[in-house]
Predict the structure of DUF1173 family protein.
Amino acid sequence: MRIVVRNSPTHVLTELSDREAVALRAWHGNAASNADAAIALSVIRRVKVMGGWIECDCLEAQHQPLLAPIRQERTFTLRRLTPKDNAPGRHAERPNHALACPFHVDKDASPALIDRSYHLRPLPKSERSYIDALPAIPDRLADVSGHEPPRSSERNDRPSRLGGVLWRMLDRAGTNVIPPLQDGVDYTLANQLSRLRSAARELRVLRTWTLNALLSTWGPDYWNPTSRWQQLLASSRRDWPEGLRRTGFMLLFSTSVSTQAIMPASTSRTIEILSKVRQPLRGDPANRGPFLTLLNVDFQDDDEGPVRAVQAYAQPVYNGDTLFPVESGFERDVSHLLFWLQQSFFDAAPELRVSIIKPLFAMETPIGLCRPDFVLEVTYRDQPPRRLLVEAFGMETEEYRDAKEKTIPRMKHLGPIFAVSPEDLTEANSERTGRRLQAWVVDKIGDG
Ligand SMILES: [Zn+2]
């Protein structure tokens, strides 16, 4: 990335360092550490002072996408410049960012329903322990004499913050790891939710309130003002600073979700959400559930009313017992194959231990970040563990496949890859695929 002259991007002012580029991308993807956020802010301020624009470097093309620094009241942000910002015909040299770039502009004008860049999530894991509450309800009109209000498209296709919170909880609780069957873990929804609650105890919303204290996992609490959850939210009232809205959270296993509602398994009632429910964009929408859903609630505009669900993120999961995260119906089928593999080795070769991992965050390689679909960690007796990758090549858009193709060479640095396509899992082929995968794993252990 580099800083170029405003309205004359062929003139370069200065190059940004790799660290600065990483920080900007992490900030835009809501995955910035405090250090990233500080670096991103200083870069945007510097570009503003220099009267420049930022030229991205995500395309292999003559013209790169451009980002303009803007200052709103006391905040700085970046506006993504696209041809439609200006008169038709002008600025054809302003391409959209690559699909894998966090600055990619979602052409869909409706508020984001999906995370378009979720599949790469090429972002360092945030080490922050604080969870964002809802901002205060605006009680002033913006100054209309200045420039026009920020266009909604600027931010609405950033990855969901709630999604980020949910992945951090799943990661801390180890919900994305199925340990070897030799460990004899007993899977129930109640056990998994209680592990997630323990993880939520390590995350804070306010200095004096952990995420766990403001979290319910029981759907009927939504309508019950005398529930312990709502009572705690009531007693937290005096601790909320001016700039934040009193916010509660619900973590609900849900059989299905619709555009603006979720159907928790723990109640026959439906929770309507004020904004659209967000979820990963992948595979057939009709075949994505069940879900683990994280939503946040407030108490209406006056902070006095009944609980109101404001935002929600729905993470597809394998089933309600494991809550193992997947991103499509096809990934659920691939998980099923991996669970079968784990069981078959447990039965036939108990000295072979197999863990199944669904990476929730990007992994580092010498040539960049990537996020494999599945990682197997295989240990034979007292030999060191061997890392093997399983990639689900589902029915995806061409754009998606192109983005994925780019990360395959990176994944090869992490371990050998076994590819699974929908054709491999048809009724006629699945048994053969299972045997082929078994033989591949045995072969790789022999190599190691
Ligand atoms: Zn870009």
Notes: Residues 56, 58, 65, 97-98, 101, 103 surround zinc ion (CB under 6 Å).
